Amino acid sequence: MFLNSDTAHASSLKNAPDNEEFWGAVRKTMEPMYTHTQLVNTRRGSSPLEVRDRVRSLVDLSLSYELDEYEPFRDLKESGSSLMIRQMLADYFGGGADEIALTRNAMEGIATVLNGVTLKPGDEVIATKYCYDSNLAILRQRVERDGIVLKLVDLPFGRGSDAEFVKAFSDAITERTRLITFPHVVVRTGQVLPVKPLAELARAKGIFSFVDGAHSAGHICFRLDELGCDAFATCLHKWMYGPRGTGFLYVRRDKIADVWPMWASWSNKPADSIEKFEEVGSVFKALPASIPDALAFNLQIGQEEKAARLRYMRNRWMIPLSRHEKVTMLTDIDAEPGTGFGAFVLDGIDHGQFAKALLDEFKINVLSFAMDEDPSLKGIHVSPGLSNSLDEIDRFVEAAHIVLGRGG
Questions:
Q1: 3-state SS string for the chain
Q2: What PANTHER family does the annotation carry (predicted)?
Q3: Do 217 and 306 lie in a common domain?
């Protein structure tokens, strides 16, 4: 289903979001192995066969060699990184190879920055209740350990304007604020936060800005150097469809020296070297060695094409369900840029029972959630991925109407 804003854009894409011949072929290359219809793809995406085959082919090599002179991954550092891989990531996401460090997941990059920015007792960090619970756990540890002050801004649940979000952060800033951190995409609702104006607000006041990009990388179109944030961490196993155990940390060139690495650099990398973040000891190199294959898969499709397809699938379920009298959408379908997932609340129907009925009776998996920081904020989350078919989405809409019709 197209919105007016999507129709003109679709004509400029090399493969339109409703080209089922093309997207059906993409789905076949991913061969999802779930036994139920999986409509919660925010946890991880199904890697394409070319990536899975590549990892399998490298596993024996990774586990069998013994002598350095027969090292099959001599072009990779002990951390699994290389200049070539960092440059490929920079080409895809923006920024420079000297601003991107390979990590094993988003959490490693997040922990590096949230622990590595120098903070003194009384210094303030501004975050949001929509940050991942693990991110907030790191900051709360710093509250206990370092005596910093953690402030959570009150943002709208679901729909909200960029101006509202910027004002909320602006109103919370004081002369003691040293760091602001927030998710690029709120995982449950699909709300995209305005990184560029928030980064500009922070920079104007000498505040470090850090973005959790776990659900934006490979999902929506952006360039890191255009976002303007000081640091950004993500994984590659969600919307980039790479193997679990891969990710990267981006730090602006002029801010690298301001962040301590998690591990001291054994090779004495200078404070302004992005490579200081990569000295983490031995890793399983079969995983980072497959990153070029994952990037090739995404480049073959096109990021704009991926983003448009994900929005198209979202509209396919969101528009018909939004018309139901018992459904209130938390996701703004007209927002730009929009994500491929969203959420809604039910009137007079228990969210958990709704999700259970879909799973038990129709073998369709959606997520009944309550926000960690405020359990009163709850709803149903739906996030189709490229491995889903339109038939699966249509079957979800039909099943949802059946469950709604009988009141849960």
A1: CCCHHHHHHHCCCCCCCCCHHHHHHHHHHHCCCCCCEECECCCCCCCCHHHHHHHHHHHHHHHHCCCHHHCCCCCCCCCCCCHHHHHHHHHHHCCCHHHEEEECCHHHHHHHHHHHECCCCCCEEEEECCCCHHHHHHHHHHHHHHCCEEEEECCCCCCCCHHHHHHHHHHHCCCCEEEEEEECECCCCCCECCHHHHHHHHHHCCCEEEEECCCCCCCCCCCHHHHCCCEEEEECCCCCCCCCCCEEEEECHHHHHHECCCCCCCCCCCCCCHHHHHCCCCCCCCCHHHHHHHHHHHHHHCHHHHHHHHHHHHHHHHHHHHCCCCEEECCCCCCCCCCCCEEEEECCCCHHHHHHHHHHHHCEECEEEECCCCCCCEEEEEECCCCCCHHHHHHHHHHHHHHHHCCC
A2: BLR1280 PROTEIN, L-CYSTEINE DESULFHYDRASE
A3: no
d(CA 408, CA 401): 10
Q: What is the pTM of this model?
A: 0.94
- Where among 239, 274, 297 does a domain terminate? 297
- What's the CATH number where 21 sits? 3.90.1150.10
Which of 297, 330, 361 represents a domain boundary (last residue)? 297
Tens of pLDDT, residue by residue, the chain (408 residues): 555 555 555 567 899 999 999 999 999 999 877 788 999 999 877 899 999 999 988 888 777 765 555 556 667 777 778 899 999 999 999 999 999 999 999 999 999 999 999 999 999 999 999 999 999 999 999 999 999 999 999 999 988 899 999 999 999 999 999 999 999 999 999 999 999 999 999 999 999 999 999 999 999 999 999 999 999 999 999 999 999 999 999 999 999 999 999 999 888 899 999 999 998 888 888 899 999 999 999 999 999 999 999 999 999 999 999 999 999 999 999 988 899 999 999 999 999 999 999 999 999 999 999 988 889 999 999 999 999 999 999 999 999 999 999 876
Within 13 Å, how many C-alpha atoms sit on residue 131's CB side? Answer: 28
Q: Are residues 143 and 253 in the same domain?
A: yes
